[in-house]
Amino acid sequence: MTGGAPQVFAPWDDPKAKPLIEFRGVTKRFGDFTAVDAIDLNIYPREFFALLGPSGCGKTTLMRMLAGFETPTEGHILLDGKDLAAVPPNRRAVNMMFQSYALFPHLTVYDNIAFGLKRSDMPKSEIDGRVTEMLKLVQLGPFAKRKPHQISGGQRQRVALARALAKAPKLLLLDEPLAALDKKLRHDTQFELMDIQEKTGTTFVIVTHDQEEAMTVASRIAVMKDGRLLQVSTPPQIYENPNSAYVADFIGDVTIINGTAEPHPDGYAVHWAEGQAPLVVRSPLTLSSGQACHLAIRPEKVDVSKTRPEDDNVVKGEVIDIAYLGNLSTFHVRLPGGQMLKAQKFNTEHSARKEITWGDEIWLSWSDECAVLLDR
Amino acid sequence: MSDMTEDTDRLGALRRWALILVPYLWLLGLFLVPFIIVLKISVSDIALAIPPYAPTLDLSQGWQGLRDFLGKLDFENYIFLTQDDLYWKAYLSSLRIAVVATVLTLLVGFPVAHAMARAPEEWRPTLMMLVILPFWTSFLIRVYAWIGILSGEGYLNQFLMALGVIDSPLTILNTPVAVYIGIVYTYLPFMILPIYATLEKMDDSLIEAAEDLGCTRLQSFWLVTLPLARPGIIAGCFLVFIPTLGEFVIPSLLGGSNTLMVGKVLWDEFFQNRDWPVASAVAVILLLLIILPVVLFQRNQERQGEAGK
């Protein structure tokens, strides 16, 4: 971070920053099944860290090891520099918000939030103040005397959050916290979560399979697959510079073209179809001539036009499908040789949609900076 | 037009009534009517006749007959129950045995139900089967089997002596201990099943949440598992307590003459003394003893339900 530049929150780029959580070679096996495979990962204070992946990728196991419900088969987990192995869940400065919320049905909203405080060494006189503070934070004051079954799903979610935050943990774990909410409420709650995370200054680790949710809330995302971390980076980095075809495909919409690379000034030319001009791309990768590779192209990076434009890459294709989304349209275009390519166009003009229709021959173009070269 | 809707309305109402009527008829025919008969016998006098009590209602005498009939009814059997200390001692002893046996059954049944609910899901049907399995054999035979186990030369004594734990046979049969063993054994499934049902549908993450919030294992059991199992515990206790209070077979087979229980007194009055009126009075009091706690409990539940709203 230099002089006048606005201070950016990026402790992961600062070699002096001390991580709150360190995973060191952590492996977890259940019988023959390896749920988490030799993971090294640092999570820094005040981060909103997302573990993203399909079900069965090991993200929940990773989180349950942080909470203390599972113990690593191999490796160590450090919290604030101290090994967590010998610390049982009830003694960890870590609280969890469960996917099912796990609210105690026999206790009122107030007593649910006070539950953890009563088990702590907080003096009785201070508990009431703290609970009231938490109720205010999640705007549930009027519902303090209700039982969990007497409030709505969104309210229950907020009680669970307040209960987990009440003990002011160093680390808050959120297991698919918004999965049970409908879409509209989920969007509102995402912003509320970020707001609360900022207000309380707590480190959040969220487990989710929803890439949009991870992109919205997280400061960094770890994409997991089969117990391994594929990429750990900020949302823009993951989106613009995915390090594998899997990550590119998992985050957002993308077209992956298979081909062979050949060195070219500033990068590579990718040969992708018989009799077609190669696609040029800038890349920091070093590939040998003729090496098999993927080219990942985001649909919004591709320009659509009816006349041949001037650009680094220009291909002609036939419109097979149009998905009209209001603010933009997605075109599914068949290139010569059968390769499909997705392209998006903002509907800035009123009649934009009518210009191009099914079966039209159109030109697709993009610059050599807009695609991402991935080795196979 | 309006007539027609009125007709269909009336038909619908009739149908609803018919539906509600069925369970009421059942209760009336199989519970209320027998109870009234027993109640009537309990306020009659013993007689050497068939049936062995008087008066009987003679409707051929008309109003006068009814008046004579009602005039002869009195509560002297109930007064008699208070004069002979055998009866209140039998009630008290039955209550004590029923309470102790219920607590013992709970102490044995809860851990079993808890273990079943926490067992791997594929085992649960088998475990449930094992709990229910004894019902496939006659209750009487199973109680007789306990005589063979508990008697002086029984298997238990032989086993303990073979192990060298004891030198001379323990006297278990014909003592209250044998009655408790018999009751706990017989009524255990009635305790286990309702508790298992409540524990089984409990979300495991509740226990994890309790631990996550600072509870030790014991605290999370006390603060979460137990309160949530409460309905099952109460149901199980009633299912054991009520039949135990009037239990006859177990104390008469295993308890010998040392165990005083109202079920045995009832039997003796009916079949030894052939004093139906006193026996009926004993039965009516027993019924009141059972109904009272049930009604109180239901009141309490209703009040709690309203407070929750």
Structure report:
The complex is a heterodimer of chains A (376) and B (309). Helix content of chain A is 23%, strand content 34%. Chain A has 376 residues and is an alpha+beta fold. Chain A folds into 2 domains: 18-245, P-loop containing nucleotide triphosphate hydrolases (Rossmann fold), CATH 3.40.50.300; 253-375, Beta Barrel (OB fold (Dihydrolipoamide Acetyltransferase, E2P)), CATH 2.40.50. In chain A, the strands form 4 sheets. Chain A has a 6-stranded mixed beta sheet, sandwiched between helices. Chain A starts with 20 loop residues before the first strand and ends with a strand. The model of chain A has no long low-confidence stretch (mean pLDDT 88). Chain B has 13 helices and 2 strands; from the N terminus they run H-E-E-H-H-H-H-H-H-H-H-H-H-H-H. Chain B is mostly helical and 309 residues long. Chain B has a single domain, classed as MetI-like (MetI-like fold, Orthogonal Bundle), CATH 1.10.3720.10. The longest helix of chain B has 41 residues, at 2-42. In chain B, 77% of the residues lie in helices and 1% in strands. The interface between A and B is medium-sized, with 27 and 20 residues.
